[in-house]
Amino acid sequence: MERFEKIYDTHAALVYNVALNYVQNNQEAEEITQDVFLKVFNKSKSFKKESSLKTWVYRITINTSIDYLRKRKRRPLHSGLGYDSQIDQNKSEWKHPGVLLEEKEAYRALFEALNQLPDAQKSSIILLKIEGLSQKETARVLGLKEKALESLFHRAKNNLRSLLEKEKKKTNV
Fold first, then answer.
1. What domains can you pick out in the chain, each with its CATH number?
2. How do the residues of the chain divide into helix, strand and coil, expressed in percent and rounded to 5?
3. pTM exceeds 0.90 for this model
4. Which positions ≥6 away from 73 have C-beta within 8 Å?
5. CA 74/CA 71 separation, integer angstroms
6. Which pLDDT tens digit goes with each residue over 19-47?
7. What are the backbone angles phi and psi of residue 97, rounded to the nearest 5°?
8. Residues 6 or more apart in contact with residue 24 via CB below 8 angstroms
């Protein structure tokens, strides 16, 4: 039990943040976090140590998040974005409310487009750019070779750019 508590303490924030990037709703991310640690606890004896514990926990989190979205048969909501309240928390300078509104709208558009990507492409962007994992670690988490990840990420960036441009054109009309 003590080992499980250490695993939880070490990885809880990681799990919650990854889940939040998928579902973009605080309560749902908390629910997924609970589900992930139930799976970790129940499957801990089957962990083969072929990868690091962190990689294994990431993989369980990604699969649980994707399964959660599929079960709900809907795409993520934008109203619970954890990013809404964090836009200016890391900066001490004051920002005009209009600037904050524009930033919030940009986050909304970005996550709306991100949610339209296939799961593998979405995962590559979340892990590489939002979570800041290395290319090597992301490839391990996704079960890919690094070259395959590069290709996947390149397609994801192009698709994301295209979706954002389409959205921009719609709003400018």
1. 2-72 (1.10.1740.10), 90-172 (1.10.10.10)
2. 75, 0, 25
3. no
4. none
5. 8
6. 999 988 899 999 999 999 999 988 887 78
7. -55, -35
8. 76, 77, 78, 80, 81, 82, 111, 115
